[in-house]
Write a structure and sequence with these properties.
Number of strands: 8
Oligomer: single chain
Strand order of the largest sheet: 1-4-3-2
Length: 323
């Protein structure tokens, strides 16, 4: 894997992340997923007009991108390359779509079943006005506008994604804004933004990728603190990219998420990983002395008493004594 300096994560160049992801670094790719989630969803929504289908297409786009990274000759063009993948998947899906969009059906049900407050009517009218105005723009201008408002990308970032000059992007923005009420567009863009939705998509994408390559992952609130816990409490080591290495030789990727998303994923009774230990009682005592939450509980399926313990984020692990 290409080395990424963990001590200055905020200064990582996108190109470095792309190169690292090309060599199998799932954590690096998760950062790219988080950066582009809103833009990809906006591109898919622009074609499908369905928020939930757009989420599905976004997930497929990221998975396809990860599996095809070896075909990307210019890592600095990752954004425009991802845009192309999303566009083609969205168009292909729309061609195969034979039913009404779920979003239209839900809005219809909402109009029929819910009381129409002035605020609700205003928000619906704003979304309709913006969608209609967006259709008057060419595809590139639409995506530039959505990338700016929905994904909150800067002008230089958008320019790199489309291989255009910043002045050309700004020119398209000015022309597009003449057709749109900016306050309406900002309100509509808020429909897509939200850390929880973005985190969920990141986790779903990572889950599919690590299963494919035979690795493991856990959601965490603070990657650095959790990695330190594995080193100090369990005595595990980190590879030169700072990834937690399990005794089996597999990587345990740590994916940062919000508190709400973390709670959803740590509710499972099944352990993420089962560690083989020499002495169960000694291990139990050592973990207790270090303040680790640890318990004996009937294992799901077998009913046999097993040792389970938890990391600071609440992820569950098993401990099984070797015979």
């Amino acid at each position: 894997m290409t080395e990424i300096h963990q001590h200055n994560d905020s200064s990582l160049l996108e190109t470095e992340l792309v190169i690292a992801a090309t060599r199998g670094d799932v954590e690096a790719f998760a950062k790219l997923v988080r950066k582009y989630t809103n833009a990809v969803c906006a591109i898919a929504y622009d074609i499908l007009s369905d928020y939930y289908l757009a989420q599905d297409i976004a997930q497929e786009s990221f998975v396809k991108a990860f599996r095809s990274l070896h075909n990307l000759q210019q890592p600095e063009r990752f954004g425009s390359w991802l845009y192309s993948i999303t566009l083609h998947l969205s168009i292909d899906y729309k061609r195969s779509l034979t039913r009404k969009s779920r979003l239209q059906e839900e809005i219809g049900q909402l109009l029929e079943n819910e009381p129409q407050t002035d605020d609700l009517i205003l928000r619906q009218e704003m979304r309709l006005d913006v969608r209609q105005a967006l259709q008057q723009l060419d595809a590139t201008s639409r995506t530039i506008l959505l990338s700016y408002y929905v994904s909150e990308m800067t002008m230089p970032e958008i320019a790199r994604m489309f291989n255009m000059s910043v002045s050309a992007v700004e020119s398209r923005m000015r022309r597009s804004r003449k057709l749109l009420k900016e306050n309406h567009l900002s309100a509509w863009a808020g429909h897509f933004r939200g850390q929880e939705a973005s985190d969920k998509l990141v986790v779903h994408v990572v889950e599919r990728l690590v299963k494919k390559v035979g690795q493991y992952y856990i959601p965490v609130l603070d990657r650095s603190k959790t990695a330190e816990w594995f080193v100090n409490v369990l005595g595990l080591s980190l590879d030169y990219n700072g990834h937690v290495m399990l005794p089996s030789g597999h990587c345990l990727f740590l994916i940062e998420v919000s508190q709400a998303v973390l709670q959803e994923f740590v509710s499972s009774k099944l352990p993420v990983v089962v560690f083989m230990i020499e002495d169960e009682d000694q291990f139990f005592q050592t973990m207790e002395q270090q303040g680790v939450q640890i318990m004996r509980e009937a294992a799901p399926g077998t009913g046999e008493m097993r040792v389970f313990f938890f990391d600071p984020d609440g992820n569950r692990y098993g401990a099984l004594a070797t015979l």
